[in-house]
Write a structure and sequence with these properties.
The protein is built from 11 helices and 5 strands, in the order E-H-E-H-H-H-H-E-H-E-H-H-E-H-H-H.
Amino acid sequence: MYKYIAMDSEYCSMGRWISAIVGDAMNMKLYEGKDLIDLCTEEWMSEDYLNEFDERLSTMTLAQVKKSPKMQRVHQALTKAIYKAIEKGPCIIHERAAGEILKEQDDCLKVLLYNTSLEHKIPRAIADKTYDLEELSHDEIIAFIKSRDHMRKVYRDAVAVTSWGEKTSYDLCLDSDMLGREKCAEILIEACQDISLDMKQCAQIIKDSFTWTV
């Protein structure tokens, strides 16, 4: 049974909704950036500081982020917070290179939520009251959505040996546009449950289903 989920998600792929439902069903606390801040001991770390830092990432190249002393400072602080989070009990950690930090944890499921339709993301981006996008043009909203994903990608890629958004970086990748948010939540809940198959029954099913030739 998985005790932890390291969740990466494209912006407006319904990752927060899915994580909240899975967390409630599996008794896992959801940690986003603002929640990890509460576990930080560094006096300089605050929600405003992290938000400003994230906005800078959205306009920086990967090479620039890798060389940034502030990136190393923030990553070190949030890494300690992530370890504190898993010490407190089962949880879902959103972004912040959690999959890389917890890659040695056998009981951590590394997940990517993505959405194949940029157009379907637009209404959700407009509905996100964190940002004021209602007056922006179609192309400006698309550019904004891509900037959020760029921000998430360069953060992880600056500190990880695997790449954000690449399927080989994860145990499970789910297209929330094709599957729907409810089905994605159901799949994750089932993936985290301790379910055992009757291997003798499986062997008999395979034997009955196929004709083996040498």
